[in-house]
Write a structure and sequence with these properties.
homodimer, alpha+beta, Cyclophilin, nine-stranded antiparallel beta sheet, 24% strand, globular
Chain lengths: 310, 310
């Protein structure tokens, strides 16, 4: 009975698995599961990331895919592409894992300029790109459920974002799986050679204070389940604790056959809207009360392996 | 320069480390750090958890401390105490780790009743205790910053909580580190023999649908950094992947010298209010924009080792 207990609770908690038979006394049909809604999506509701914006990071444990967000941080995207083309990240490492906060990678040599790897053709400093002007040409699907931190939140081509009509600015938000650009004190000190990913509760206080370069589409467990560093701020004390980065490549630099075949559900699609609605108003054999609302960072934008084109 | 970049960014992101010298052109003093504010706290602002409510879970990797929350879930606390006194959990295991969701432990035998451990004197079913009536005698420190999911949020003796004046109910919330009671479909099917802890973005949709038994005070990295299970819903496929639970004891059952000496900052204290304010209005060499608000689940209630009484 207890595996059933586990599975029942968790099938529904996770929004996975088959929907159970609903209690006969209940007249309302159970809310469709995420899997059921996705199964009914159409091909046109899925978007294939531009290989020019797709980073493939190879770790000893597997592959991490990151989609860059040039609509919001074009100069950072360009610099990261330059670094990837130079194979800058190959042989660098994950240097920091702080619980309920971030996993960070870059050059373990730190500020030792004599040992630190050259940025080559990439820029050492960049304009901040923490926010950008709201523009009607920029994709925007509002999430009307409210937010503690920003006047308006929503999605822009699959990325969680916020905006403030009062100052006309919009920005990407620090949700789980979002990839940010580490920097020093000065706002121009980030360049994309040190990146972090959010692995815990969304640290929204960082919004508008750091450039967000993109989002992890695949491989989050390879970054989130690493041993936490025991040095200050989760830096690893010993070199042996670091996870080496075997390579980082731009998908567009790979032979077509080697490019990852992933697709992201369009956040302006009817299926995405249906997923949000199912999350707000879930009614089934497990849930006793529906939340009525969905928080921006509680939305997981679906990613799938694309079917091979035969 | 890059280790400096890392450290600077992260000292402030993490709220750790010494405050940097503030830019000379800035006339406003930098916001004190968390460490600085805690250093000024008084002894009376810290609360020592009742050993009757403190669970000590020993894993091969270290110790996890969980404070039970009998103000909200008294029947579950009593049942979990009964289970701990019987040494029920000793030799059971962590059976599930689902990325950005929960780590769960209990009896790996699942629903095989012939193999499943007896609950002994503990109850197999309990009333749900998902919410309880608001009561002026129940501690309540409101957090006025707003919330997506509940009309009112705040803290009750160190636990994040919500309430709805419309129906007169209050409940604990599924924030990072909160420990919930797994159950089957029926609302009376949880008993505390299977517990989960939140290891990712707060799954607030679970609020009022599951009983929350307490909060992890120490040892979260031992639960959050485990390999994710690759079976459905993050269950481990193979027995060898599970982390064994060596023992779970109620601190009150341990000899006084062996009881963990931890203290929790009172959430009705001036120092806690100052920490919230520093988080909302942070202004220092790193932060360019302060968030102005703080979300309920972005607040980490401080825990410290108590000084030994000599």
């Amino acid at each position: 009975m207890h595996a059933h207990r586990q599975l029942a609770a968790l099938a529904l908690l996770a929004g996975l698995g088959a929907a159970p038979a609903f209690a006969a006394t209940d007249t309302q049909a159970p809310t469709p599961t995420r899997a059921e809604l996705l199964a009914k999506s159409t091909a046109g509701e899925w978007r294939t990331p531009d290989p020019h914006n797709l980073l493939v990071m190879q770790l000893p444990t597997g592959r991490v895919l990151i989609e860059l967000a040039p609509d919001f941080t074009p100069l950072h995207a360009a610099n990261i592409r330059t670094l990837a083309r130079q194979h800058y990240f190959d042989g660098l490492a994950i240097v920091r894992v702080q619980d309920n906060f971030v996993t960070q990678w870059g050059d373990p040599a730190g500020d030792d300029k004599s040992k630190r790897r050259s940025l080559g053709e990439a820029h050492d400093t960049l304009p901040p790109e923490y926010t950008r002007p709201i523009d009607p040409k920029l994709a925007w699907t509002p999430l009307p459920d409210g937010d503690v931190y920003a006047p308006e939140v929503g999605f822009s081509n699959g990325f969680p974002a916020a905006r403030d009509p009062a100052d006309g600015q919009t920005w990407l938000t620090h949700c789980y799986g979002m990839v940010g650009v580490g920097r020093d004190y000065g706002p121009e000190t980030g360049n994309g050679s040190e990146l972090y990913v959010v692995i815990g509760q969304a640290p929204r206080r960082l919004d508008r204070n750091l450039a967000i370069a993109g989002r992890v589409l695949e491989g989050m467990p390879l970054l989130s389940a690493l041993p936490r560093g025991t040095g200050p701020m989760g830096f690893y004390d010993k070199a042996a604790q670091r996870t080496p980065i075997q390579s980082v490549r731009l998908a567009s630099e790979l032979p077509p056959a080697q490019r990852p075949a992933v697709q992201v559900l369009r956040t302006d699609s009817a299926t995405f809207a249906a997923l949000l609605d199912a999350q707000r108003h879930r009614h089934d054999a497990f849930y006793k009360v529906s939340s009525g609302k969905v928080g921006l960072c509680s939305v997981e934008v679906p990613v799938r392996e694309a079917k091979p084109a035969h």
